[in-house]
Amino acid sequence: MKKLYMLIALVLLMAIVTACGNNDTKKSEASKDESSELVSQPYTKTDFLMGTINVVKIYDKGKEDVLLKAFDRIKELDKQITTSDSAKTSEVDKVNLAAGKNPVKVNDDVYYLIKEGLKYSASSSGSFDITIGPLTSLWHIGFDDARKPSQAEIDAALPLIDYTKVKLDDAKKNRILRRKRHGDRLRCDRQRLYRG
Fold first, then answer.
1. Mean pLDDT, all residues of the chain
2. What is d(CA 5, CA 132) in angstroms, rounded to the nearest whole number?
3. Which one of 73, 80, 156, 173 has the fewest CB atoms closer than 10 angstroms to its CB?
4. What element of type H or E holds 59?
């Protein structure tokens, strides 16, 4: 299971880094010869973002500026999917708050992330479930009031975990409807979405 989490984290990091690439064909063809030279010691930046340590290494000579772009992209994604801020303003928070009430329009990044998360949830038969938020939030890890929840709290949260209740509407693109279960709401967990 740990290997699956590492694979997901690696895929996400690759997607983030490649999203910072240059789409201008002429520029990329012209700089192909320049960027083909590799450095023996990569340009490296490490930062704690998205609840984990992120390390990005660039081996192309003269491309150190890509590090800042990569970390800017990670910060941008973190703002869109964080579920730990008290303001509840992220895209994922909006989905969680509207669960069972109405569809929620989200941006392309979040839609893609949730869609891919659902694929992993399905392929693992729920062992990796992006709706584990009601359970993981009980511990409140990373906050001053972190604690071990009671067994009764855990038992009450377990029926709320069910990735099959997340419905995507590809026809309307970027619309997500999450259904209620047992009078409470399912909630996506950001750790499951991007880190595992």
1. 78
2. 15
3. 173
4. strand 52-60
Given a contact cutoff of 8 angstroms between Cβ atoms, the answer to whether 54 and 46 are in contact is: yes
Q: What residue spans define the domains of the chain?
A: 2-81, 91-194
Which CATH class for the 91-194 domain? mainly alpha
Query: How far is residue 92's CA from residue 4's CA, in Å, rounded to a whole number?
Result: 22
CA-nearest of 189, 138, 143 to 163 is 189
C-alpha 60/C-alpha 45 separation (Å) is 14
Predicted confidence (pLDDT) per residue in 60-95, tens digit: 999 999 999 999 999 999 888 887 667 788 888 888
Confidence of residue 9 (pLDDT cuts 50, 70, 90): low
